[in-house]
Design goal:
Blueprint lengths: L1 H109 L1
């Protein structure tokens, strides 16, 4: 009877050791699978981050190009106004020179 109990205990011990080995193997597979899934999630996050970065850069570039176009148009309008103003001032300067020249000629005739 004692031998029978010892055999049962040894049998259960062998089964328990096998279960421990199986559990360790299963835990190893679970850890490996979790690591692979984690790596995939990280790669997906990297890809999503890169896509977001590209989208943001493209949006910023488009906004910058729009602003540059607006500034160029405003600059062209300002330059046009300045040219018109300069042209008017040039004409006034020429008129003043011509008046001074005529006055000088008249003053020379008098003497």
């Amino acid at each position: 009877m004692v031998k029978k109990h010892l055999d049962e205990i040894r049998s259960k011990e062998v089964e328990a050791r096998q279960r421990i080995l199986d559990a360790r193997a299963q835990a190893g597979r679970i850890v490996e699978k979790a690591g692979e899934e984690g790596e995939k999630l990280l790669e997906d996050a990297r890809i999503a981050g890169n896509e977001l970065k590209k989208t943001m850069v493209a949006g910023a570039n488009e906004a910058a190009q729009t602003r540059i176009k607006e500034l160029r148009e405003a600059g062209a309008v300002t330059i046009g106004k300045l040219e018109k103003s300069a042209s008017g001032n040039r004409q006034k300067a020429l008129d003043m020179i011509m008046d001074a020249f005529r006055k000088g000629l008249r003053d020379m005739d008098v003497h």
